[in-house]
C-alpha cells in the first residue's frame, strides 16, 4: 500500500504546469499541495494568475488556491510537501531546482540538469536502472533529496521507438521533426510568425535530441552512464499544430530484419512501468498504425491517454535500412505525463 505524497508544482501556471494539474486530478499516489510560479503570479488565486488552456474544466479547489513564489521558503510556508514537480523555464531551473533538490525529490522537465553526470535522465520503459544514480548524487552533493530529469519533448517518443530497434544493431538515426505550438509554452510563438508558415528552427532543440538520446540509451555501470554507441542527426521545425510532435525517422541497422519483425518489435515492446502496473503506464508504450496516412497529430496524439508513441508508415529505405513516422503528445508523454510516470517509478522502487 503506497501512502499519498503531497506535491508542489513549480511553474504551475504554464503549459506544462497546467497539464500536471489536469493529470494529477484523482491520482492514487500524489495530491497537489502547493502551486508555485513567478512573482507576477505569487499572491494571486490560481484562477486569476493563469489562463487555463486545458480541455477539461479548471477544478474548483485548484482555482481557489493561492499561487506562491517558486522558492523553498515560500513553498514550505504554503504546505507540507514530500515531492516536487518542476516545469520552470530552463534558464531559471538550474539554481531553483538545486535549492529544492537539497531537501526534496525533484522531478524536472527543464533542461538545466539533464546532462549532469550524477543526474538521471529517465524514460521509465527504457532505463529505469539509471534511477540508482541518485544515490551517487546524494553522496556527492550531501543532499537529502535529489534531482532527476525527463528528456526534451521531442526526444522521449523517439527513444521509445529506438529502444526496440537496438536488438537489430541500431547504428545511425536521422530525424526531422514537426513540432507543435504548445511545445513553446504559453503564449509561445507569435501567431503572425506561424500562421501560413513552418519555422525551421527551434533554439537548442537539435543539440538536445542528439545528446539526450545517447545518454538515455546508454548503460549505467554503477558509477556513471556510458553513452550508447550511436550517431544521431536531428533537424527541428515548428509547425501550426496545437499539440503533438510528429517525426520522420530514418534508421541504419547492422542487421536486415523484415518489415514484419520491425513491426513486431514495436508492438511487443514494454518495460518496467508495464510490469509494475504503474498508474500512468500505457498498456502499449508503442502503438503501430497500419493506415497509409497515419499517425496524424489531431487523430493520434491522445493514444494511450497521450502516453504512447504512435508509429506508422514503416518502410524500407534505399539509403538507410528503415524509415517510419512517429508521434507523441508533447505536454503529456513529452512533459507532465512523463514526469508523473518517472515519479511513480521512483516511488515504486522506494527511492522517493
Ligand atoms: N511545453 C512543452 O511541451 C514542454 C515539454 C517538455 C519540457 N518543457 C519544459 O518545461 C518547462 C516549462 O515549459 P512550459 O511550456 O510550461 O512554459 P510556459 O508555458 O512558459 O510556463 C512557464 C512557467 O514558469 C513560470 N515562471 C516564469 N518565470 C519565472 C520566474 N522568474 N520564477 C518562477 N517561475 C517562473 C511561469 O509563471 P508565470 O505564469 O507566473 O509567469 C509559468 O508557470 C521549460 O523548461 C520547457 O523547456 C516543455
Describe this protein with a few key phrases.
352 residues; alpha/beta; Rossmann fold; Dihydrodipicolinate Reductase, domain 2; 2 domains; 6-stranded parallel sheet; 6-stranded mixed sheet; 14 strands; binds NADP nicotinamide-adenine-dinucleotide phosphate
Q: Would you mind describing this structure in some detail?
A:
The protein is built from 14 helices and 14 strands. With 352 residues, it is α/β, with parallel strands linked by helices. It has two domains: 5-152 and 335-348, 3-Layer(aba) Sandwich (Rossmann fold); 153-329, Dihydrodipicolinate Reductase, domain 2, CATH 3.30.360. The strands form three sheets. The protein has a six-stranded parallel sheet with strand order 3-2-1-4-5-6, sandwiched between helices. Helix 8 packs parallel to helix 10 and helix 8 (153-162) crosses helix 14. The longest helix has 17 residues, at 332-348. The chain starts with a strand and ends with a helix. The site of NADP nicotinamide-adenine-dinucleotide phosphate has 29 residues, from helix 1, helix 5 and helix 14. NADP nicotinamide-adenine-dinucleotide phosphate binds next to helix 1, helix 5 and helix 14.
